[in-house]
Write a structure and sequence with these properties.
Number of helices: 3
Largest sheet: none
Radius of gyration: 25 Å
Helix content: 55-70%
Structural class: mainly alpha
Distance between the termini: 44 Å
Strand content: under 5%
Order of helices and strands: HHH
Shape: elongated
Length: 100
């Protein structure tokens, strides 16, 4: 929560400073370009941050599920690598059988 609050406050502070400086720079094209460029760069970086976080979460979830499958003796171990199967095979496969 602390990082989120710091990020929001920093962003709001920068926007307020930018808006206050508007009259000083007579709302020029350069003044507008500064905020447009800044927001574009931040958005671009946040996309990669979100993607990295989702990939880590998905990997952790897969590792946990693999461990659960390994620990249940009646489970089919070939379900561990199900993500390597094609999606078409998932739809046509009965729920009570393991994937090949």
């Amino acid at each position: 929560m602390g990082r989120f609050s710091l990020g929001i406050c920093s962003g709001q502070t920068l926007v307020v400073i930018w808006a206050v400086l508007g009259p000083h720079y007579r709302f020029s094209d350069t003044w507008q370009l500064i905020i447009n460029t800044g927001t574009t760069v931040v958005t671009f970086l946040i996309v990669f941050l979100i993607q990295n976080t989702q990939n880590r979460d998905a990997r952790a979830l897969h590792l946990k599920l693999d461990e659960v499958i390994r620990s249940i003796h009646s489970a089919h171990n070939n379900m561990i690598n199900i993500e390597s199967c094609r999606t078409e095979n998932w739809r046509n496969w009965p729920s009570n059988r393991a994937f090949p």
